[in-house]
Amino acid sequence: MDLQLPIEGIERYNSASQRARVGTESWGAANFFCPVCDSPRLDVAPHGTATLDYSCPRCGSPFQLKSQSKPFGARIVDAAYSQMKRAILTDRTPNLYVLHYDLTAWAVRAVILIPHFAFALSAIEVRPPLAPTARRAGWVGCNILLNKIPQDARISIVADGAARPAAEVRRAHKRLRPLEKIKAEKRGWTLEVLKVVRALQKNDFSLDDVYGHERELARLHPGNRNIQAKIRQQLQGLRDMGMVEFLGRGEYRLL
């Protein structure tokens, strides 16, 4: 995988952001592969296709690319909030590639993949409406909160200037695929409990450790009156998916 961004065609653009958009999209067309199947490439989506930049020619999986010149932080700027919310609830979000490039070196520094089934509403932040003087006055956008997405679902493709083998990426994606079978309206709970388990930062943990985040989960699900039972249910689901192991007597191990 060549991490230098292409320069062909960018001379037509005066804006640095336009040059970066063209360069990163062209780089993706030359280097992205499908993590869902064994296709070594992705097709570029027709110009003007909303929320879609690439698709797999074999399995049809859709992909979107978000690029930025700053290292990954807590937020990724996304599109309209209402559009993203509807996409999550109807299970129509594309897989997302997030790319960090070095503008001075004109090179890719980091890329992560977030599978389409890894988005919960808790990972989306509403931005303030645009001012009345703006061209799209009142428009409401959103941010993707990376720290609200489980670590497992932020699959590294490029890190510290080095590309990860495609086989490793596909194994990491396959491990998460059972989440895809959970209905979209229920998947948020599983993702949020997985994020809590990861945040404990230890391989062996107890049910009480997860109960310690009960208040946080209750804020996300104000209509649920039995948070502890829901936590146990989600841990059982994560066990069935092979992501945690039940050791007995309220003790678990992260696999």
Walk me through what this model shows.
- This protein is of the alpha+beta class and 255 residues long.
- It has two domains: 10-177, PvuII Endonuclease, Chain A (3-Layer(aba) Sandwich), CATH 3.40.210; 185-254, Winged helix-like DNA-binding domain superfamily/Winged helix DNA-binding domain (Arc Repressor Mutant, subunit A), CATH 1.10.10.
- Helix content is 31%, strand content 24%.
- The protein is built from seven helices and 13 strands.
- It has helices at residues 16-31, 81-89, 166-176, 184-199, 207-211, 214-220, 227-240; strands at residues 43-44, 54-55, 62-68, 75-80, 95-102, 107-114, 124-126, 141-145, 155-159, 162-163, 204-206, 244-248, 251-254.
- The strands form three sheets. It has a seven-stranded mixed beta sheet with strand order 1-2-3-5-6-9-10.
- A hairpin with a 2-residue loop joins strand 9 (155-159) and strand 10 (162-163).
- Helix 4 (184-199) packs across helix 7 (227-240).
- It is globular and about 65 Å long.
- It starts with 15 loop residues before the first helix and ends with a strand.
Q: What is the gist of this entry?
A:
The chain is α+β, with helices and mostly antiparallel strands and about 260 residues long.
Question: Can you tell me the CATH class of the largest domain?
Answer: Alpha Beta
The H-level CATH homologous superfamily of the largest domain, spelled out, is Dam replacing family, catalytic PD-(D/E)XK domain
**In total, how many beta strands?**
13
Q: How large, in whole angstroms, is the Cα Rg?
A: 20 Å
The class by helix and strand makeup works out as alpha+beta
